[in-house]
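From the shared-data thread, chain only:
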Amino acid sequence: CVCFWRDYKGEYKMAAEPCDATSPETYTVQPPEPKEKKPGQLEKWQVEQYFEKGYVLVPNFFTREELDPVKDAISELVDVLANKLFAAGKIDDKCEKAGFYQRLIMLEKHFPGTAVLLHKLGVLPPAFQALWSNERLLNVMEQFIGPDIAGHPVWNLRTKTPRNEQVTVPWHQDNAYLDASCLTTLQPTAWIPLLDTNANNGCMQVVSGGHRLGKTATHTCCSGGTWYVDLNEDEMVKTLNVNLDQDVVTCEVPYGGVLFLNNCIPHRSLENHSDKTRWSLDLRWQNPTKSNGFFGLKDCVVMRKADDPDYVIDWSKFANTDRTKLQAKEMGKNMEDEFDATIYGPWMRRWEIVHHNKHTAAHHAHVNDPGSSWHA
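Structure, as tokens:
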């Protein structure tokens, strides 16, 4: 099985790896241990668990003081969006008196899709940059991928308002959203919630050990009324050799904690049944010399170089390049309506579309041959 994908010019390109490539060593073999002890590094057993089970939950990784600037930046993003919606006549109340965990919920009631609009924002605020390049986080990444470290183009602010299908992500492997060229690239994720998370307010679940075969199972598109790919549980059991009765782990991460996982482990977020927005960030890294799988749309941002201990991150281009607009361009569309709450991207051409909705309709509207598949 050879994997092809088509860019926005209609040109077909072949991925470096076959669609059904397997690479268990990518996800299960640890790099050499760092030679020196550094702040934030995980204990030996935690690193071993990461490679054996595909995840590790680390409580109390951050202080409240480290996360406060992130919350402030999110509040500013919400405020900017509320002002735009108000100026455009989309809402008649900016809900300015509501708190951090309530305001987005109220705005969503006035203008359904507000949570998606905020999720779509692709420009990286300085507070997010500082968190992503946090010294202790990078020291953990060195334990996972070695001393050369880059930030992956795909980062997300999760705007998980209560009982909202659009922000509830079904079972998937992160590799399913990328092209097959990165199947031999370990891309660790740090999932960082901004409140105590539990099964009631939409914490994460992972399938422990689901990464060990190094396979990306067959996904379908799209789940319910969303743009998300979906990994069927029967397919997961058959292809990844997991036992869902035994291997599903509910990860209740406290505020200040981090859930580290890899790009091959199946995971999902549960529905938010609380009365608060379950804010979180997911940030990714990889070795900068390897493919990032992002369809050639955006490069990684180098954060550390083994041969240059004084290296300074250049955020100028990366932080101001809107990933969402690049994805739309790849699909042949220039984004004009800033209040359009549909999302689509190249991953929709990788998997069979078995369920249609407004997101897949937008995808079809901007692809010359909507029935085409990039598998061959």
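The radius of gyration is 20 Å.
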